[in-house]
Please model this.
Amino acid sequence: MSRDFAFIQTAPDRLFVGWGPFEQLPFRRPDRPAFFITDFFLDDPHPWRHPASWEELSVAELVERFPDDGSPQVEWATTYLTPFREQFDSAKEAMARGDFKKVVPVLFEEGRVRTRGDWRRHLLARLPHIPPHMRAYGYSYHAHGVIGASPEVLFESDVRGYRTMALAGTRVIARKEELLRDPKELLEHRLVVDDIVRRLAPFGNLEVGALGILEMPTIAHLATPIRFEENGVEKMSFAEMVRRLHPTAALGVSPRTEAGERWLREADRGVKRRTFGAPFGLERPDRFALALVAIRNVQWDADRLRVGSGAGLLPESQLEREFDELRYKREQVKAMFGVEAPVAVSA
Model:
């Protein structure tokens, strides 16, 4: 796995691909495109990755750049309830104290690849089969990287302004209609909408679209489209938009408080989410800007894989139901990228 690259889907079956080596800087050079790749807490001082060369490709064309070394055989470790129970109880106690109303802990499932070879082609070859409302993205740097397909756009620029969205509330696809009747799911989603409105309203005009259901192969989410147009002549920079929006209440905490930030960072000591849920984006000299929320992905470091998932906790949340939601999301990712294997889930 020697060739470094990064990519993001900019249109149906069109990927913007950058090839390494990458120049990492705290800012984007104005005459060059660059990827914005950082950690969830935005602690990386050099998030801009400038590729040595770049091109637009179809998914099939990108796949052909890599050798066909077969499918990875993954041995997944058992995922236990106990670590999540500790986060669940801690979050409930914090909410009872009034520290926040909602928080999103993350749980990872870890596995080891038992086959040799460059299996990045296997992950990339699955991208043509992802649902049309998901965006492909990823990078590979030396022995580690991530490949995913996110249903959540943090923001995307257009002629008039930006498009963003609220995405929160989950059900298995067979029970998707329950989302529109479940008070807990509706409240969780409303907190995300309100958070985005609060963060952007002082800087321009907002149009909040109609609440709907976003369907995926095995699960469904509540979704609300939102448009934003700035008041001023000059648009906010990419980094300013990121810091204004990330993390929304769909992945972070509501309301945004110092106590909530401490809870998220303390919880991360045990899971180390790294880039999971972080902004993953691209900005070009023509002012095209796209930032995805880096969820629904497979992370790797040498022969070790990780698949993460998050669940929004409210005072009304039930432990087993949230644990099942986390599992549904991970199973969807594993099936989507062809790395599934029988997994025992124990209490």
Remarks:
- The radius of gyration is 19 Å.
- The chain has one domain: 5-346.
- Residues 342-347 have pLDDT under 50 and may be disordered.
